[in-house]
Every structure is written in structure tokens, then in C-alpha cells.
Amino acid sequence: VRGAYLVLAAEPFLWDSMKKILKDQVLGGKYLDFNYQIDDFSTQPLEDFIGSAETLPFFLNKKVVIAEHLPLEKGQVKEYEEKLLGLASYVKKANPSSLLFFQFDGGLPFKGKAYKALEPALQIVRLARLNEKELHRFIIKRLQAKGLQVEKSLPPFLAERSFYLTRPSETSLYQLANMVDAVAGLAEEGRVTLKAGQSLFSDPVEENIFKLMDAISRKDGCQAIHYLVGFEQVKEDPIRIFYMTVRQIRLLLGVKGIKSKRLSPAQGMRMLGISAFEYRKIESAVDRFTLEELIFLHEKLFQMEIDLKTKPFDMALALEIFFGALGN
Q: Sign of the C-alpha dihedral, residues 210, 212, 213, 219?
């Protein structure tokens, strides 16, 4: 590890983990009061940062100097441009015994004048949000670090229940880590199971909404009506069910179009903004529908929305009629 780094920290948990590695492994946890400096760049005078970076390490070969919250958003750059350009000038001739880390809160900085001045002197570290496989691995490793065996079906369940992979999502790895730790508390004989996860994070209403969406994908109108009646009994808002149904039909239409254009699943996931798990579920169901059927269903839903907004309208009854026509 040497030089200066720009850390694009879209996932705060990973940035905090990286700082711990810098303290514990790069510096060995030694003389941190002298060799580990961290400040907020937006409030710290540039002269103070340079002073810290120029100070020689104490009884070590290296020291770590961190400037967090680098103002590289489009709306911030103009206010801090002079300071950022001064930083770019310094980094080109920085003290070689200091490891410099500049953290940006996000994954996509504005690539204006200041960024272009900084970029040649910096190594880029991307701490992106995890994909599906990485998320499952994160769950498994966190549980294994506690000495636990993990039932294979548990990580996909926790990933789905966290809504981390749903775009856009406000769930962070910190929230998922809390879920994992809660499940770990229910381990029996050194093993944590799907049943333990379900006991904590299965909401019957949410569970039945997923089952309703699966029934739509199967063109199983009778089962869809069965779940709808159950929602009415617990006074679940039919408007919410309606918009979930709209989303499901639009996803089926989207995957239908992606397959007709022979695009890869990876391209499809990016275009639709959904996880691999959800894409596979939609892809496995889409051949039950013709394109004409999906367009017809989408038009029916569009008309239902117009009626909802323009006149007295019984959404629960309209959904029952809509689901009843699914297989016809």
C-alpha cells in the first residue's frame, strides 16, 4: 500500500471496514494517536491536512492520513473548487511516507475540473454496493465468523427480506448485519436455519403479497383471488396491491422484450433495475404469456388507474375481476 487513494464509498459499511483494516493491519494498531489522522475535508483547512500529511510517522515506516466527505458532488464542487485544486497540486508531490485516503460519499463523483486535476495522482478504490452473490457471501462469512454453520436457504431469504437488492434501496449493510446478528442469536447446536430467519423476519402480509405475485406469473387467477380475499380480511389497502400488480405485469413485459431482443440476463437486470433472483423468477414465468396478453393486461391496469383517479371506484372488486380473467 503506497501513495494516494480516492475511495468512492457507495457502501458505508465497507468504508468503515476499510478504515479498520488500515488501523489494525497496515499500521498494526501501533501509535495510532500519531500515525492515524482522520478529518472531514469540507471543514478542515487545507493547510491542516497538508501539515498532517507532511509530519513524519512515529516509530513506523508509514502513517495514514484520511480526508472524509470529499465534496465532489456536482452541486458542491464550485464552492470548494479552489481548495480541491490546491489539494490536487499537493498530492502530486506529497510526502511518500504518508498514505493518503480521500473518501467520497457515493459511487459517481462529478468529473469536472477539480476531479480531472485530482485523478492522475490518485488510485481509485470503488466500494460499491454488493451484488447478489457478494451479499450471500457476506451473510455466510458473518455467521461463520461466529462459529456457526449456515443452512443453504438462509442467505437468499435474508437478502430478499432486507430489500438490499431492490432498486432504489435505502437498506445498508449495517441494517443487514443487524438482521444476521439477530438470527445468529437463535442458533441451535452451532447451526442457524431458515426457520430461525423466518421466525424473525416473516411478515404474513408481505409473504402473501409475494405469493400473489407468483400466482399472477403462473396465470393462476383462482389462487390470486384467494390471496386478495385474505388481504381484504386484514384490511390491507387494495391500492397497494394494485400497484404491486402493475409492477409485476411491467416486469413480465420488460423481460418478454429483453428475451425477444436476445439480450443477456445481465443486461436485462440492469435495464429493469432488479436483482438476479427476481429476474430469474420472472424469466421462468414469462413464456406462459404471449406479448399480446401482457399488453392487454397492462392496458386493463392503465384503465383501472384512470378510473381510480377520475370517479368513485371499487379497487378491490376491480382487482378480483382482473385476477379472474388471468387464465382466460
A: positive
Q: What is the pTM for the complete model shown?
A: 0.68
**Environment class of 226 (CB within 10 Å of its CB; exposed 0-12, middle 13-18, buried 19+):** middle
> Could you give the CA distance from residue 215 to residue 323 in angstroms, rounded to a whole number?
9
The C-alpha cell that represents 178 in the structure block: 443487524
What is the C-alpha separation between 55 and 49, in angstroms, rounded?
10
Which tens digit of pLDDT belongs to each residue from 158-193?
998 888 887 767 788 998 999 999 999 999 999 999
Residue 59, φ and ψ in degrees, nearest 5: 60, 25
Residue 187: which region, alpha, beta or left (left: phi > 0; alpha: psi -120 to 50)? beta
Distance CA 76, CA 122 (A): 20
Secondary structure (3-state) at 22: helix
**Single-letter amino acid code for the residue at 245:** T
Q: What pLDDT sits at residue 303?
A: 95
Do residues 279 and 258 make contact, with C-beta atoms less than 8 angstroms apart? no
Q: What are phi and psi of 127, to 5 degrees?
A: -105, 80
Strand partners, 67: 39, 102
Compute the distance between CA of residue 77 and CA of residue 83 in angstroms, rounded to an integer. Answer: 10
b vs e for 272-283, b when ≥16 Cβ sit within 10 Å of the residue's Cβ? bebbeebbebbb
Task: Determine the 3-state secondary structure of 201 from DSSP.
Answer: helix
Residue type, 151: E
Compute the average pLDDT of residues 222-238: 86
The phi and psi torsions of 173 (rounded to 5 degrees) equal -65, -25
- How many Å from the N-terminal Cα to the C-terminal Cα in the chain? 64
Length of the chain equals: 328
What is the grid cell recorded at 217? 406469473
